[in-house]
Amino acid sequence: MSEILYNEIPSLDLADFTSGDAAKKAAFVNKLGDAYQNIGFVAIKNHGLSQELQDKLYAAIQQFFALEDEVKTKYEKPEIGYQRGYTGKGKEHAKGRNTGDLKEFYHVGQDLSLIPDTDPIKKEYPANVWPSEVPEFQEVALEVYNTIENAGKAMLRAIALHLELDEEYFEDKVAYGNSILRPIHYFPIQNPEEVPEDAVRAAEHGDINLITLLMGASADGLQVLRKDGKWIPITALPDQLVVNVGDMLERHTNKKLKSTIHRVVNPPREKMNSSRYSIPFFMHPRAEMDLTCLADCVDEQHPKAFDDATAGEFLEERLRELGLRK
Ligand SMILES: O=C(O)CCC(=O)C(=O)O
Ligand SMILES: [Fe+2]
């Protein structure tokens, strides 16, 4: 395994993996493996999500976040750890911090009507929450959810091949998984003096889930921490999704695949009064997935670095650390 210091995150074409050309498919898996063992991030095109659909979702969420705070808080569900519906400004903070991030967001989960009644997981998920003020949000969000979920399944097939597992290894683990689509609004700050000095749009963190697929943001600010300590700005092209490894996949692979720390920095002071929007999809498995380190990822040079846990147990622990669960 070569040590690579990327100056930008590698760009890949998902069509190389899905087109049926064996040589292109193998090359995709190799490049993805190099990227995920080094910087933990790639940008992919040909992911199946049209620009039109992305534009529709951005339009709907901008309409929602423009509502008065009193209206938005009607859609807050603290009793389910904010896992569906709205989460208000400053509620979430990165693990190990107390200052809340300068953001508000909205959680969309599985469309329960698509889960067969015979699957016991159907009863475990809370129903989605939809704002009556923006009626088109529901249909657009669910279509985006399902489209990105499919792209995520393809990425997990490629990841499985890189790990020399069966290509279908993740398939049953993510079927009706606990994934979340999270449109985020980094709200304008009129008076920077009024926010805590150390408050940022998103403090440095690793994502909790298996992989994250991120739609192109409306402004700069996202940066990833390279292993030599340098922060690398990420600017996805409009037709790309940024796809990164989360902590669950890092655990399961005993750090072979890297869940790289990233953050969203504040704009310069004179631009603090402008909004930034972004839409990540956090791909989670079913709660029962065993995240125990894969035997093939443990050896003398790589002793087992994590205690055994299921995805559900790990998620609960992290939600408490983020301030979303009491
Ligand atoms: O807003 C972004 O560009 C990234 C957000 C992010 O890292 C997260 O929500 O986990
Ligand atoms: Fe993140």
Give descriptors for this structure.
326 residues, alpha+beta, Jelly Rolls, nine-stranded mixed sheet, four-stranded antiparallel sheet, 8 helices, 27% helix, 16% strand, binds 2-oxoglutaric acid, binds fe (ii) ion
Summary, kept brief:
Keywords: Iron, Metal-binding, Oxidoreductase. The chain is an alpha+beta fold and 326 residues long.
Q: Write down the Rg.
A: 19 Å
Q: What is the third-level CATH name, the topology?
A: Jelly Rolls
Parts with pLDDT < 50 across at least 5 consecutive residues:
none
Largest β sheet strand count, sense and barrel closure = 9 strands, mixed
From the spread of the alpha carbons, the general shape counts as globular
Number of helices: 8
Mean pLDDT: 95
Helix content bin: 25-40%
Tell me how many strands there are.
Answer: 13
Question: Any idea what the CATH architecture is?
Answer: Sandwich
Reading the helices and strands in chain order gives EHHEHHEEHHEEEEEEEHEEH
What is the name of the CATH superfamily?
B-lactam Antibiotic, Isopenicillin N Synthase, Chain
The total tally of domains equals 1
- Unique ligands: 2-oxoglutaric acid, fe (ii) ion
Distance between the termini: 42 Å
Report the sheet-strand fraction. Answer: 15-25%
Protein name: Flavonol synthase
Organism: Echinicola pacifica
InterPro entries: DIOX_N (IPR026992), IPNS-like_FE2OG_OXY (IPR044861), IPNS-like_sf (IPR027443), Oxoglu/Fe-dep_dioxygenase_dom (IPR005123)
Family: Belongs to the iron/ascorbate-dependent oxidoreductase family.
Please give a structural write-up.
Keywords: Iron, Metal-binding, Oxidoreductase. This is Flavonol synthase. Residues 176-285 form the Fe2OG dioxygenase domain. Helix 3 crosses helix 5. Strands 1, 2, 3, 4, 5, 6, 8, 11 and 13 form a 9-stranded mixed sheet that branches. This protein has one domain: Jelly Rolls (Sandwich). A hairpin with a 5-residue loop joins strand 9 (222-225) and strand 10 (231-233). 27% of the residues lie in helices and 16% in strands. The N and C termini lie far apart (42 Å). It is an alpha+beta fold. It binds 2-oxoglutaric acid and fe (ii) ion.
